[in-house]
Write a structure and sequence with these properties.
The chain has 9 helices and 5 strands, in the order E-H-E-E-E-H-H-H-H-H-H-H-H-E. By secondary structure, the protein is an alpha/beta fold. It has a 5-stranded mixed β-sheet, with helices on one face. Helix 3 (85-111) runs antiparallel to helix 6 and helix 6 (158-176) packs parallel to helix 8 (209-215).
């Protein structure tokens, strides 16, 4: 049995606060792979110091890309088997855009906007008593700010960051067009990736220019709804326990 380590289900509007976790949950559900969801409160417990990570009968792996490759080799899980070589290359580029820039723009919108940061504090640190809670939240904000800076996106102005994110959303909308999924009538890993990122933008009650942009795209909103229905309708094969 695969044990999938995730954040706590604490943010209304999304299956998990991390788009990467939602991506992996979506693939597992669509592929019908039974698994146990283990909610943890410290990403540092993972081999890469982040979530998600899995424990597959003693094989511990972090990073969604490496996990998906493991699932392909050990269980034959491949949502991309219907894609052509060109489509696989396009999928690769699309996922890098979503995960390496739109994700970070979303992080900025959550943690660097004062009003939204207060919401994040209430969600992630509500169980921590004062005055320790104040210290931990300040450290968390500094850590996120440093990560944004080291990534590069955090070196830009607020307007520039949102302009980058909005251009990524526009590009995604153009690729989708009027299709049911990004590469036709069947979902692929790129769809799981896009769903994870988009549902974390439009689902939670956290305002941002990114959310406004997605909401202004009827095709993207309908796409998120389709993916949500697939996610909820797929036989999850999922049990839950806390770490």
């Amino acid at each position: 049995m695969i044990r999938l380590h995730t954040f706590k289900d604490c943010l209304p509007g999304t299956p998990d606060p991390s788009g990467f976790v939602v991506k992996l949950m979506t693939v597992l559900r669509l592929a019908g792979v039974g698994h146990e969801r283990v909610e943890v409160d410290n990403p540092a417990k993972g081999p890469k110091g982040k979530l998600p990570f899995i424990d597959d009968n003693g094989v511990v792996l972090g990073d969604s890309v490496l996990i998906l490759e493991h699932l392909r080799k050990t269980r034959g899980v491949d949502l991309d088997r219907h894609l052509s070589p060109l489509q696989k290359a396009q999928s690769h580029a699309l996922q890098r855009m979503l995960e390496e820039r739109l994700y970070w723009a979303t992080v900025f919108s959550r943690w660097m906007e004062p009003a939204n940061a207060k919401v994040e504090d209430e969600i992630f640190f509500a169980d921590i008593p004062w005055p320790i809670r104040g210290f931990i939240t300040r450290q968390a904000h500094k850590t996120v700010e440093a990560a944004l800076h080291h990534h590069g996106l955090g070196r830009h102005s607020r307007d520039e960051i949102y302009a980058f994110g909005i251009s990524d959303i526009e590009a995604l909308a153009q690729v989708l067009g009027e299709q049911e999924f990004l590469f036709g009538s069947s979902p692929s890993v790129a769809d799981a990736t896009a769903f994870g990122m988009l549902v974390n933008i439009v689902g939670p009650n956290i305002p941002s220019p990114l959310k406004d942009m997605v909401a202004a795209k009827p095709t993207l909103m309908a796409y998120v709804a389709r993916m949500q229905a697939l996610f909820e309708g797929a036989a999850p094969g999922e049990t839950l326990r806390a770490a």
